[in-house]
Write a structure and sequence with these properties.
Elements (H helix, E strand, L loop, with lengths): L4 H9 L3 H23 L2 H17 L10 H20 L2 H10 L8 H21 L3 H11 L5 H8 L3 H19 L3 H12 L1
Helix pairs in contact: 1-2, 2-3, 2-4, 3-4, 6-9, 6-10, 7-9, 8-9
Protein name: RNA polymerase sigma-70 factor
Family: Belongs to the sigma-70 factor family. ECF subfamily.
Organism: Reichenbachiella ulvae
Length: 194
């Protein structure tokens, strides 16, 4: 029997393991997939998600969740993923990275931050430009244009399934193109935004 989020949290705070198991079973798989997008290692993703749940159980008496349980869990997993990624960069590389990757030696952090963002954008844009023409149009309408698959299908006189397939194809191609640059992209993101 499903119970409301508020009841689940109340029951967890009262040491109810069945309520805790319910949210674990409900969200574990989706959270692991979500985490995998960041850490790119299935075992690490599963461990990080388990750590989030362990942390919730450990803090159950004092835990205060002001959003939905789902939003809280996804935010916690994202944060834990970023922390994990930061720790994967060797200490000496972290030290060098701030100066060498973003070249922040002259103190103009805003200008350099903008350069880092532009560099990230150029990597992604080059990968998008390399897509086949039809695929590129559909992908841009979906991502940049903010159109739904149904709207794109109607606009281009295609089936929704064709649009889905083309967006899936685009994402696979982008992943292939950007994977070799993953370390550099993560360094830029970590040093600029954290």
């Amino acid at each position: 029997m499903l119970i409301s989020e508020e009841e689940i949290l109340d029951r967890i705070s009262e040491d109810d393991k069945s309520a805790f198991e319910q949210i674990f079973r409900l969200y574990y798989t989706d959270l692991s997939r979500y985490c995998l997008k960041y850490v790119r290692d299935e075992h690490v993703a599963e461990e990080l998600v388990q750590e989030v749940f362990i942390n919730i159980w450990d803090r159950r008496h004092t835990l205060s969740i002001t959003t939905s349980v789902k939003a809280y869990l996804f935010t916690a997993v994202r944060n834990r993923s970023f922390n994990y990624l930061k720790l994967q960069i060797p200490k000496e590389q972290r030290k060098i990275g701030v100066e060498d990757v973003l070249d922040l030696t002259d103190g103009s952090e805003e200008r350099e931050g903008n350069m880092a963002i532009e560099e990230l954008y150029s990597y992604v844009q080059e990968a998008i430009d390399a897509l086949p023409p039809k695929c590129k149009v559909i992908f841009n309408l979906s991502r940049s244009g903010g159109m739904t698959y149904k709207e794109i299908a109607e606009e281009l006189d295609l089936s929704v399934k064709t649009v889905e397939n083309q967006v899936g194809h685009a994402l696979r191609k982008l992943r292939e193109q950007l994977t070799p640059l993953w370390d550099k992209i993560m360094l830029l993101i970590l040093f600029h935004f954290f």
